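Lab notebook: predicted structure, single chain.

Context: the supervisor wants predicted structures on file for every construct in the current expression panel, including those that have not yet been purified. This is the next one on the list. No modifications to the sequence; it matches the entry in the shared construct table.
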Amino acid sequence: MKSLRALKAAGLIFAAMALGLMTAQGSYAVWNAGATAAAGTVQAAGFDVEMDNGSGAAVLMTQNDGSQGTVALNVGTVNAGASSFTAVKLTNNSDAGGDFTIRASVAGSPQFSAPGNLWTIQHRAAPGGNPASCNAALFAGTQDQTVDIPKGSSGIICFQVSLAASANIQGQVTTISVPLSAAQVG
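Prediction complete. Output recorded below exactly as produced.
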């Protein structure tokens, strides 16, 4: 009799544990392990992308205060009916651990300070950091519009700036704003 009561009590305890585990979706462990860790510092990685227009004076794409960095395109003089080629070199200076590849691209339509219908601007991407790759041959084909830049490397976005043959804006300065973006892809 005594063993039958003990068996019933053990079965009841087992049933209660099983019901508790199934409803809580947990696990039951009869051991406990722990480890101590010393206090430390947690530091966020920097997402630094530098832009250089060929002057050697790199500018952060996003400034420390959160504002947008700007660089001037070194287009020079563009005559009516002609084109000029220039580049912006982008360098991925992230200090994140592991792989940290970014994809750089033009993020919208260019804005012109003079009548926009006189200007045409195209862009192409070029891997590596050589601005000399920005030439008419690059724009003759269908080159990529974006460039993937691994951590510690550079890429180029080339621009072809053309002025309409009918343009008569001698001596006028035109400002062209082209928004760029960089996003992590790997």
